[in-house]
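Practice problem: predict the structure.
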Amino acid sequence: MDDTSIIELYWKRDEQAIAETEKKYGKLCYRIAENILKQKEDSEECVNDAFMKAWNSIPPDRPTYFSAYLCQIVKRLALSKLRYNSASKRQHDNVLSYEELSDIVSNKQTPEDTRIMAELSNAISDFLMREKKINRMMFIRRYWYYDSIEIISNEFKINSKTVGSILFRMRRRLKKYLKKEGFDL
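Answer:
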């Protein structure tokens, strides 16, 4: 079933929407949640909560890119759960992935920052489009899907230290690019 049809099911309040969402995007959502949380039970809870949040937000939302919309919900819920778990002195490796970019991009969520965040998102996209395809793919795998350096290393058949160096240099270039574009970092 295509995304438009799934969204129509949500708009009709047909519970089949959740089943179709699970069928089409369940594995992707679980992968993102597990990459962040590293615990099966927490990941399952996070994905179920994401499906419920999608149910409650569509309508009124009508996402253009349903997969990105859903992944964003999963990521936010998983990061929230990770912060909760970390506050309980349980530290995870992927806190590092999240924190690697935190000194470049702050996590502003207030309504007045919506325009700035949209501009920042566009600037990051522009920056990534200027990078080599393999570097861009590694960056997205690390900071969107929260894959570990080891997983990226195995996927691209590159030494993990090389992957780490590439990502470090990209973060440095990104920071320089964003400053040039007028972002106060």
